[in-house]
């Protein structure tokens, strides 16, 4: 027996069409590794597969390996560098995973084994929750609809740039150099490049319109992508635009065209595919955080990204919240977390205790507690210093006189003698302020009964990719009494009875999620209660992606700290967090 045969003996080795069709005619789940002759089956997953087969049993799970060139149906995989794993249930193709992604393979296998076990338990009346797919469609879903190009008529003489993202399979096939050579010979200059593996969450964030196409997300996370910034260093005309479009193969690359124009000779605005300026700079900042589009150079390579806390005081929040957020954004800061809160007198006194005893202290505390403040966690290179510098002097008269451009001068309010903005003065103080305004919080997340059957894995993986830790998890079917109690504040609503019916129809997954600012972030991630509204205002939210109706809306999240504590206590009892 050859070494390779020995390695794969628990996987049926399929050598021809006849064996292929025979393998597919056996009922149950069949997971087959489609490999290239020159590299052989994927060794990296064999231990995992062997373990899963022992755990799940041969009746529920079989494995195979097949050379992509030995079966006609598999020719679309011929010549690809990364393996493809095809999942067949009772001979029908139900899933394709490209690339070696152990956790995803394991999750998918276990999910389908679970389905079969349910079928055995409940008999023929159980309808399998799987959908047949076709190889042709899978291949099509990997093609970008169209290279994304936006042509600007208004480049105002500043350099113009394209961002070219070489996709994982082209990177694996060594196409990056070829693409660069082509670009250079067509007169473009590569001014920056970066290779990066994107996780699923980053992909959904970056490619918002494709966030709910699992095949696309899976494909883009199957290996590193390579991002390039290309420029011709002059205004691009229609001809250079089409030259680049023709030069790059949309199957291999995604082309993004940032508009670059000057507003006042200083400021640079970027737009990608008609999206907002905020999104554009976030998208590009993701790959090239220190690239300066006005000078066309990379910033310092020893970037020292820091976090600091900005506090917008109540009067400014009330009068010019959007304007100040815009100014912060324009100055190149990213808002990593934000929270509006009304400080109690005790909190305000504690926060400003070093000013205690000063004559202005009482009126200052009055002001700070007069309405909600907006706390922001800002990130940028040397954020602490930059933010302090941008704020200007603390005394308003001095700010207006000596630094009229500073934010404190610009955002001084006529009838308020107190400056409206605070910033941590050192990195140590920033850490203290972060803990104070964005402490690690715990919140209750519930995957409601229908979604816990249909989307559990997807939702949990998005929770994890968003950086939450799941401190506790359990599956529980609420009794009517529990559901009535859980939603007691809705007792007099017309939908109360249907809500209780819905929540008691099967087990829900209950989780305690922990993270800085967990309560607000989880609420943001689930989106508005009504999925129609969610699709409009937060299309990437869980409710926009998965909810069926305002009632059957997939997930629950505590709305504030008190509800979180009460709900956690109600469902988990006294837990030590
Ligand atoms: P949540 O905190 O975002 O879940 O929203 P609410 O506390 O307002 O509502 C609790 C749950 O009741 C929602 O998640 C829905 O399942 C359901 N619900 C809320 N509003 C309506 C409504 O107008 N009609 C129906 N049928 N169900 C609703």
Automatic annotation (TrEMBL):
A family per Pfam: Thioredoxin
Family annotation (InterPro entries): NDK-like_dom, NDK-like_dom_sf, Nucleoside_diP_kinase, Thioredoxin-like_sf, Thioredoxin_CS, Thioredoxin_domain, TXND_domain-containing
The organism's place on the tree of life at top rank: Eukaryota
Domain Nucleoside diphosphate kinase-like: 163-295, 305-439, 440-577
Matching SUPFAM superfamilies: Nucleoside diphosphate kinase, NDK (SSF54919), Thioredoxin-like (SSF52833)
Family, per entry: Belongs to the NDK family.
Protein name: Nucleoside diphosphate kinase-like domain-containing protein
Species for this entry: Coilia grayii
């Amino acid at each position: 027996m050859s070494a390779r045969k020995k390695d794969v003996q628990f996987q049926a080795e399929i050598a021809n069409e006849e064996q292929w069709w025979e393998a597919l005619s056996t009922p149950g789940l069949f997971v087959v590794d489609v490999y290239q002759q020159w590299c052989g089956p994927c060794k990296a997953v064999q231990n995992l597969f062997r373990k899963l087969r022992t755990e799940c049993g041969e009746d529920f799970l079989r494995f195979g390996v097949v050379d992509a060139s030995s079966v006609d149906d598999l020719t679309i995989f011929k010549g690809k560098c990364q393996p493809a794993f095809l999942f067949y249930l009772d001979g029908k193709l139900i899933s394709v995973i490209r690339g070696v992604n152990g956790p995803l393979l394991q999750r998918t296998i276990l999910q389908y084994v679970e389905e079969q076990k349910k079928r055995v338990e409940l008999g023929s009346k159980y309808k399998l929750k799987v959908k047949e797919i076709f190889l042709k469609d899978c291949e099509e879903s990997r093609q970008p609809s169209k290279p994304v190009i936006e042509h600007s008529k208004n480049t105002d003489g500043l350099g113009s740039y394209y961002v070219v993202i070489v996709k994982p399979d082209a990177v694996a096939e060594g196409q990056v150099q070829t693409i660069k050579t082509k670009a250079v010979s067509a007169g473009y200059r590569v001014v920056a490049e970066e290779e990066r593996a994107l996780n699923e969450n980053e992909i959904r964030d970056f490619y918002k319109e494709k966030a709910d196409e699992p095949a696309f997300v899976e494909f883009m996370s199957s290996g590193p992508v390579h991002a390039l910034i290309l420029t011709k260093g002059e205004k691009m005309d229609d001809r250079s635009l089409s030259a680049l479009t023709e030069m790059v193969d949309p199957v291999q690359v995604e082309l993004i065209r940032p508009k670059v124009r000057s507003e006042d000779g200083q400021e640079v605005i970027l737009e990608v595919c008609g999206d907002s300026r905020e999104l554009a700079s976030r998208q590009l900042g993701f790959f090239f955080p220190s690239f300066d589009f006005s000078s066309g150079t990379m910033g310092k390579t020893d970037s020292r990204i820091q976090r600091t806390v900005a506090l917008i005081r109540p009067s400014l929040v009330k009068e010019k919240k959007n304007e100040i957020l815009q100014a912060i954004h324009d100055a190149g800061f990213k808002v990593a977390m934000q929270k509006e809160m009304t400080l109690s007198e005790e909190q305000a006194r504690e926060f400003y205790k070093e000013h205690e005893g000063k004559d202005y202290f009482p009126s200052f505390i009055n002001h700070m507690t007069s309405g909600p403040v907006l706390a922001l966690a800002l990130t940028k290179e040397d954020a602490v210093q930059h933010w302090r510098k941008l704020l200007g002097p603390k005394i308003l008269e001095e700010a207006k006189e000596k630094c009229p451009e500073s934010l404190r001068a610009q955002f001084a309010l006529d009838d308020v003698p107190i400056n409206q903005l605070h910033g941590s003065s050192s990195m140590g103080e920033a850490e203290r302020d972060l803990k104070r305004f964005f402490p690690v919080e715990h919140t209750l997340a519930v995957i409601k009964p229908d979604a816990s059957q249909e989307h559990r894995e997807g939702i949990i993986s998005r929770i994890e990719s968003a950086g939450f830790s799941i401190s506790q998890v359990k599956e529980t079917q609420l009794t009517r009494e529990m559901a009535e109690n859980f939603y007691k504040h809705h007792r007099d609503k017309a939908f109360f009875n249907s809500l209780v019916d819905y929540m008691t129809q099967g087990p829900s997954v209950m989780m305690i999620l922990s993270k800085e600012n967990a309560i607000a972030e989880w609420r943001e991630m689930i989106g508005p209660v009504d999925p129609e509204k969610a699709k409009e205002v937060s299309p990437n939210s869980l409710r926009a992606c998965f909810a069926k109706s305002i009632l059957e809306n997939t997930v629950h999240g505590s709305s504030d700290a008190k509800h979180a504590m009460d709900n956690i206590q109600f469902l988990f009892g006294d837990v030590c967090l």
